[in-house]
Amino acid sequence: MNRSIMDLWVGVFAAAGLLALLFLALKVGNLASFSTSQTYAVEVRFGNIGGLKVRAPVKSAGVVVGRVARIGFDSDSYKAVVTLNMDGAYRFPSDSSAKILTAGLLGEQYIGIEAGGDSAMLKGGDRIRLAQDAVVLENLIGQFMTSQAANGKGASK
User: Fold this and answer.
1) 71, 5, 64: which is closest to 33 by C-alpha?
2) What parts of the chain have a pLDDT lower than 70?
3) How far apart are the C-alpha atoms of 139 and 143, rounded to whole Å?
4) Are 61 and 70 in contact (CB under 8 A)?
5) What are the pLDDT digits (tens) for 87-125?
6) Contact criterion met (CB below 8 Å) for 140 and 110
7) C-alpha–C-alpha distance, residues 140 and 80, integer Å
8) In the β-sheet with 109-114, what is the strand arrangement from edge to edge?
9) Quick one: pLDDT at residue 154?
């Protein structure tokens, strides 16, 4: 092979390697799922969102039905305000509930939607009223330690 053809092939493989790295970076950063479908925004208020991040998935029955669009703080109610961009192909009853779940023991956090039974459906600008906060591992350990200390005091009497 002549030198210029060899240089061309090296360049092609280098470019393919860079594209593969870019794809992996987007996949790991939760940015690889570009969608052109219509979405509608729904708001949920939580007392504690734990480690929930923007672009975290919104799932129902294990299927991704949306993404977290924005996380804010309401200084009047002292709650986190989470805005969800729901895929327009999926409609949920207005009495649906949302909770923050964790994928695995220490995995990423996401929002789980459980459908209600109302005949009216959620639409853009609506708010999900029933919300369950994130379970924070540090709080659970603290509660366990406190209860063990209380049980230890009671046993010594």
Assistant:
1) 64
2) 1, 29-36, 105-106, 153-157
3) 6
4) no
5) 999 999 999 999 999 887 667 899 999 999 999 999 999
6) no
7) 20
8) 127-128, 39-46, 79-87, 63-74, 57-60, 109-114, 97-102, 130-132
9) 52
The pair of three-digit structure tokens given for residue 59, joined into one six-digit string: 């799932």
Please tell me the distance from the alpha carbon of residue 50 to that of residue 131, in angstroms, as a whole number: 14
Both tokens assigned to 53? 């991040």
DSSP result, 12-62: HHHHHHHHHHHHHHHHHTT------S-EEEEEEEES--TT--TT-EEEETT
For the chain, the straight-line distance linking the first and the last C-alpha, in angstroms and rounded, comes to: 89
Structure tokens belonging to residue 15: 């470019």
Q: Supply the pTM of this predicted model.
A: 0.70
Half-sphere exposure (Cβ direction) of 5: Cα atoms closer than 13 Å: 2
Residue for token pair 């509930």: 97
Instruction: Say whether 109 sits in a helix, a strand or coil.
Output: strand
